[in-house]
Amino acid sequence: MARTKDPAVRSLLLERAAHMLRTRQPVTLRTLVAGTGVSTMAVYTYFGGMDGLWKALRQEGFTRLAARLAAVRTTADPVRDLAALGASYLANALENPDLYRVMFDAGFDLEDSGAADQTLDRLVRAVDRAKASGRFRDDVDPLELATQSWAIGHGLASLVATGPLPREALGHGVPMLTALFTSAGDESGPCRPSVERGWRWVLTAASGSHDRRERP
């Protein structure tokens, strides 16, 4: 009779691996389970081995990102909403820097290969809304603009969450996104305030405050 798997053990191993990455400890089969109370066999039971663990860890990063983006509320201002998605992307990276590193490790496949596409699709839909409302030009390619927005967020996340820049650098996202969105047809007058409203959590994080009410 097959033994029932305990989700808590799976979560324990994933969190342990993430912690070891954060503290720069070598992650091997034996070091992973050391002190956890589970045997090395658990890695095979729950993940099929270390490669499976890395795949699951990478997937967990996208799972948390998807949940974060899904929590972004939709407002009457689609440009604000597009910026807020970028802010949430950054929030996820700042709160899960270990998983963020693994998410983009192409050396391991995702368990769900469409996870990254689903993330981008949320941005595409936000661009479509901005076009429909007249904020962006009709000839704007939603996928192209969404990709450019993601590139800005990813660059800042990489440089701040896992790189050398201080959190104050997060504020650079406002002028960069404003320039991108005005190039897509938005008027400069309403564009920057919209971006600032969407980017509010990031600006709060950059100032050192952690008021959860500022989340997008």
CATH level-1 class of the largest domain: Mainly Alpha
Considering DSSP H and I runs of 4 or more, what fraction of the residues is helical? 55-70%
Number of helices: 11
* CATH architectural type of the largest domain: Orthogonal Bundle
Give Rg in angstroms: 19 Å
Shape: elongated
List the secondary-structure elements in sequence, H or E: HHHHHHHHHHH
Distance between the termini: 48 Å
Tell me how many strands there are: 0
| Overall average residue pLDDT | 88
Proportion of strand residues:
under 5%
Q: How many domains? A: 2
User: What structural category characterises the helix and strand content?
Assistant: mainly alpha
Q: Unreliable runs, pLDDT <50, ≥5 residues?
A: 210-214
* CATH topology description of the largest domain: Tetracycline Repressor, domain 2
The major sheet is characterized as: none
Describe this structure in words.
- It is built from eleven helices and no strands.
- The chain is mainly α.
- It folds into two domains: 48 residues; 157 residues, Tetracycline Repressor, domain 2 (Orthogonal Bundle), CATH 1.10.357.
- Helix 8 runs antiparallel to helix 9.
- The longest helix has 21 residues.
- The radius of gyration is 19 Å and the shape is elongated.
- The termini are far apart.
- The relative contact order is 0.12.
- The C terminus is likely disordered.
